[in-house]
Design a protein that fits this description.
204 residues; alpha/beta; Thymidylate Synthase, Chain A; two-stranded parallel ribbon; globular
Length: 204
Amino acid sequence: MKSKVDKRPEFENDSYLINMSNFFLYEKIYDDYTELKLKKFKEKDISKDGFDLFIKGKGSFRKFEEISNLEGSIYTKSVEERNNDSYENVIADVKNILKTNESSRKAVVRIANKISDYETSELETKDVSCLNLIHYLKNKVSFVFRSSDIKNELFTDLVTLYEYFIVPVYGRVFIDIEVYGSTGQNISYLDEVLKQLENENESN
C-alpha cells in the first residue's frame, strides 16, 4: 500500500484528505480494541459491553457513562437505521448497482444521522455517527467522515470498514481508498497511523 496526504490538517478540527492505493488486509488478529470493534460489527451489537476497558483518552467515549448504547458507532447497525433496510440488503444493492453499470457514480451509502439527532447529541446524550457516507466506484471507495479521531479511531475505522463494507462488495482485493475528514482530531498522529497501515499491508 502507498499512502499520499493530499490535504494535511494544519490545526485541530481542520480537514484532511488522504489516498491509499492498493489497500489490502488479510484476515488476522489485531489489537484488542480493533478486535472488539470487529466482533461488534459482525454481531451488529450496539451494547457498551466490553468498551469500558478502552474509554480512557478516547474523545468518542467522553460521554460513555451517559449514553445507553453505541448506535452511531457500529456501522453495520447504523446503516440499517439510516437506510430502513438490513445491512445485507444494503450491501446487495451496492453490488447490484456496480454490476448493472460498473462506471456508475450512484452507489452511495448513507451513514450520517438526521440533523435532529446531531442537535440532540449536543444537548443530551446520544451516540451519533462520525462517518457520513461511503461512495463506491469501480475500483475505489471513498469514506467521508464528519469527525475523525486520527490517533484513537482511524486505524480501527479502516480495518472494520474494509472487512464489513469493502470485502462483502468487492471481495478481499487490493483497492484504492480515499478518506476525507471534514474535521480531524489528534492530527499530529496522522503520519504515524498511515505508517501503521502501511506496515499492516506489508506484513501481510
